[in-house]
Amino acid sequence: MPATASGGARVEEAAAAAPSCMGTRPEELAARLAAGGPGVVGGAAGGGGGEGMEGEQERVLALREIKNQIIGNRTKKLLYLRLGAVPAVVAALAEPGASPAALVQAAAAAGSFACGVDDGARAVLAAGAVGHLTRLLAHPDDKVVDACARALRMIYQSKQAPNFDVNNEKNMDFLLSLLDSNNENVTELAANIISNSCDSNTEQLALCGAGVPQKLVSLFGGSVNLRDACLDSMTAIVRNNWEVASRFASMDHGKAFRSIVGLIHDRIPRTRLLACLCLIAIGHASPCHFPDRQIKTKLILVLLELIEEPGHVGDEAPLALTTLIKDSVELQKQAFSTNAVAKLSNHLVANSLETRRAVTILLALAELCSKEEESRSQLMSGQVSTLILDALKHDCADIRIAACSCLKNISRSSKVLGAGRLSCDTVVTPLVQLLCDSSTSVQVAALGAICNIAVNLTPRKSVLLHSGVVSQLVNLSKSMDPTLRLKSVLALRNSMFLLNPKDKDFIMKELTISTLSSLICDSEHFVQEQTLALVHNLLDGYVDAVNYVIGEDGMVINAISRQLNNASTPGVCIQGMLVLTNMAAGDELSKEAVMDVIVPHRSDRIKPSFVVNFLQSKDKQLRVASLWCILNLAYPKSDASSTRVARLQNAGVMSQVKSMRNDPCLDCKLRVSTVLDHC
């Protein structure tokens, strides 16, 4: 999301040339400013007026010199921070007798310290600058008010900014008074505070209830900076809030909404971008109030035009397009019909991969390919396919991540993956190399692509398996990072899908029964669930794979039993029951192993079975999986199956099955009927 257009950058503009005070070394300036604190500069008791004026002038010059040195210069800011200059700068704001010139220079310096340097923002806040700057917004000198408003904007744009509680009545009254000000710097400040005070639905509703959206819309006729700041604030107020977005869309019979639609055609590129972002936020928060397909098409076209703009606007336009079309088949089709893939690809080919724009364009292309086969085919038919592979090896982690995102969505299509210039052979090797990347985010992104490739390369999985990927996945499954563990297990699960027995043995040799058992009992439920799904894929179509489950003193089956008895989450229980269902379809040895899990013998008595609870679950998938397992244990009819049914009856399982004849789930009713027919 682009930063607010609240004019904050103007704080960092170089000041006009002015006479400099004697001694401009930072150490001298910091010492001179500290020596000229309250009660010293401005004339001591019994001192002459000229002496006081001279001291005040020297302080103004010192403040101006510090300000000029630190504007846009991070190194100088850090140096002055070490010299302790910030408290002395803020002290000038606190002094009742300070001249307007001193206040202007001190405010500008305080704002500059807070801009772009977290330590600087912290120092300014710790010195109490916010209170002094806020008080000075009522100063009679307009230049002082302007400088203080700009400084406060810089502070509130910082990540270190204090929380402005709009639910506090006094704070809300203060904010409304700022919005009613005739000074545009002050109203911009209000808009900036609003943009940073919408972290929750309650805050958004409070601002809406106080009439803030109406006030912001009324300010659209002001300067470009004010209008852009108000657009940014409106986006923050409606984002992900159905009620606020609905109210705004209906406000004044839709006039406010139409005013923002009109701004997507403004002559200022930044205004067009911010208007697009505001409309996107409204559409996502309240789709029913944004049904107009024509407006959505205009948004796509405007954003594609903005990609050609230089600087921040062109960098952020692809990201806005990504947000607009995310998870929407309709909008992705619409974007494809406006030639979005070709336009983005051509821009990427024509320009270097060294920019932020390359990242946002790759992410937009990834989203365009997430659901549309035509977009994938078009993307891979041009030169950009080579660029995507080059991007995997780029020095910038963000570009590597974006390239992985592209491949993740492209590889949802086995047709595209194995054809043209982007074949599986060329993709697998660089992705496997990224599994050793120094960035965890890159590793996660690479795992996402490998997960899809592992599914869609079913006829040619040997290319993937013998690329060294299995050993890397096993190593990552032991990571301390839960996301890496989960993604690596997902990739192993997908690799195991529809695999021939020989290659399944290859994976298990790398994975080992010990590691598999540990993953089944992982501290994260999602890892447990996907590991059980991996075991399910291992057993599927491979009769002898049951030896991995019951062999080596039953490490795996014992781990499964522990998880099912703990009944942690529905997902874990479902996957565990699917494993047991597969095993129960096997030979007598496998069936008995399942029975020992479901109704184990304990001291000549039968322990109550967890399956009874599963059959009573509200989750229909869990009920169905449990019924399938019971059916496989009872089929085919034999002396052994009769014994198993008797054990299930003694454990209360069959009584529960009989009570499910009228289960609300049709699939359950059918399974119940079949089970009872075989028992």
What would you say this structure looks like, in words?
This protein is 70% helix and 1% strand. The model is unreliable at 1-11, 13-22 and 37-48 (pLDDT under 50). Strands 1-2 form a two-stranded antiparallel sheet. β1 and β2 (605-606) form a beta hairpin. By secondary structure, it is mainly α.
Summarize the structure in short.
70% of the residues lie in helices and 1% in strands. It is mostly helical.
Write the layout of secondary structure elements.
Blueprint: H1 26-35, H2 49-70, H3 74-82, H4 85-94, H5 100-114, H6 118-126, H7 129-135, H8 142-157, H9 169-179, H10 184-195, H11 201-209, H12 212-218, H13 224-238, H14 242-250, H15 255-263, H16 269-285, H17 293-306, H18 311-325, H19 329-337, H20 340-350, H21 356-368, H22 373-380, H23 384-391, H24 397-410, H25 414-417, H26 424-434, H27 440-456, H28 461-476, H29 482-496, H30 501-511, H31 513-520, H32 525-539, H33 546-566, H34 570-584, H35 588-598, E1 601-602, E2 605-606, H36 610-615, H37 620-634, H38 639-650, H39 653-658, H40 666-678
Antiparallel strand pairs: 1-2
**Sequence stretches where pLDDT stays below 50 over 5 or more residues:** 1-11, 13-22, 37-48
Coarse morphology: elongated
Kindly estimate the percentage of residues that lie in beta strands according to DSSP.
Answer: under 5%
Number of DSSP helical runs: 40
Average pLDDT metric: 90
Strand order of the largest sheet: 1-2
**For the terminal residues, how far apart are their CA atoms?**
62 Å
Radius of gyration: 33 Å
Strand segment tally = 2
Structural class: mainly alpha
Helix coverage percent of residues?
A: 55-70%
Largest sheet: 2 strands, antiparallel
